[in-house]
């Protein structure tokens, strides 16, 4: 199949690509084999280094750390999406006095690394009198500010990718800009940018690992503690393997949920497949704008 980026490969190109694929697989397999060999040679798979993970108390701590990771992610995910919507609305404003400050806010927090935001929240706010800032609060606020700024650009890009005729038609029948965004543009933009939104949520989930630098007791913090247990041979590599596997499982679950949501949003659950959606008249749209869902004029 031809594309605007490349032509359909010919027979020789197909053979060449296959050889390149085989060579790539062999190189990757060789690198993995070397890593496993080095782990075996240095005793990383010996029973003494994995004995720590045979105790129930250790797995209780791992479950607690997983809960801490998911708690910070859940709060940051919800708050950052809401913040992103607010910032996108502000940046799309027709008034410069509103759009310019929102743009500065977005660009600033997109440019500052998440780790610096966490340290600023945890070490900078308490001396100013904000004593409520715990490691959890610092991680959640930092992730919210950074990802909220990113989400605002995602939403804005989604809205600007839509045909301009949709917004113009809505304005032509008397809808205000807030109603156009809420009823027409934002639902389509979110649906169109859903893969990008989920990808950014996965990034936010992985960024919770930075919280260990401010003593937030999540998975990476626990891996560091387990790796320093000299009684069990300082099992830093086994600890990283276990915690890394948990991160991979969490990201795969999030990606799976995203695929389910994406499939369901492409369908039309409100109407049966054999029944066409009812036509929405201009009078009904005007009624929605002024608070009457039936389209009748309000008294």
Q: How would you describe this protein?
A:
- There is one protein chain.
- The chain has twelve helices and no strands.
- It is an all-alpha fold and 299 residues long.
- Helix 4 crosses helix 6 and helix 5 packs antiparallel against helix 6 (135-161).
- The relative contact order is 0.10.
- The chain has a domain at 69-267: MetI-like (MetI-like fold, Orthogonal Bundle).
In short:
The protein is mostly helical and 299 residues long. It is 71% helix and 0% strand. The chain is flat and about 75 Å long.
H/E series? HHHHHHHHHHHH
Shape: flat
Q: What is the oligomeric state here? A: single chain
**Count of alpha/pi helices:** 12
The largest sheet, given as strand count, sense and whether it forms a barrel, is: none
**CATH architect. name of the domain at 69-267:** Orthogonal Bundle
Q: How many beta-strand segments?
A: 0
End-to-end gap:
59 Å
User: What is the SS-derived class?
Assistant: mainly alpha
**Which radius of gyration do the C-alpha atoms yield?**
26 Å
Estimate what percentage of residues fall within beta strands.
under 5%
């Amino acid at each position: 199949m031809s594309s605007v980026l490349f032509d359909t490969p010919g027979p020789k190109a197909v053979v060449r690509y296959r050889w390149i694929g085989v060579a790539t697989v062999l190189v990757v397999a060789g690198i993995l084999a070397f890593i496993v060999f080095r782990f075996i040679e240095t005793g990383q798979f010996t029973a003494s280094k994995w004995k720590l993970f045979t105790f129930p108390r250790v797995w209780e701590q791992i479950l607690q750390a997983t809960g801490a990771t998911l708690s910070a992610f859940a709060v940051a995910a919800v708050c950052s999406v809401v913040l992103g919507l607010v910032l996108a609305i502000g940046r799309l404003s027709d008034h410069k006095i509103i759009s310019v400050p929102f743009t500065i806010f977005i660009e600033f927090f997109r440019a500052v690394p998440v780790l610096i935001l966490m340290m600023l929240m945890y070490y900078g706010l308490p001396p100013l009198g904000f004593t409520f800032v715990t490691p959890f609060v610092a991680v959640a606020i930092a992730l919210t500010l950074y990802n909220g700024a990113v989400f605002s650009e995602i939403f804005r890009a989604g809205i600007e990718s839509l045909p301009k005729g949709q917004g113009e038609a809505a304005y032509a029948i008397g809808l205000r800009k807030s109603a156009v965004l809420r009823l027409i543009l934002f639902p389509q933009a979110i649906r169109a940018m859903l893969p990008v939104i989920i990808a950014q949520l996965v990034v936010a989930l992985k960024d919770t690992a930075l919280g260990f630098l401010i003593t937030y007791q999540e998975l990476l913090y626990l891996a560091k503690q387990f790796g320093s247990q000299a009684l069990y041979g300082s099992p830093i590599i086994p600890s990283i393997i276990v915690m890394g596997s948990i991160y991979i499982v969490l990201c795969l679950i999030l990606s799976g949920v995203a695929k389910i949501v994406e499939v369901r949003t492409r369908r039309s659950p409100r109407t049966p497949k054999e029944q066409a959606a009812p036509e929405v008249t201009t009078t009904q749209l005007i009624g929605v704008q002024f608070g009457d869902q039936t389209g009748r004029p309000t008294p």
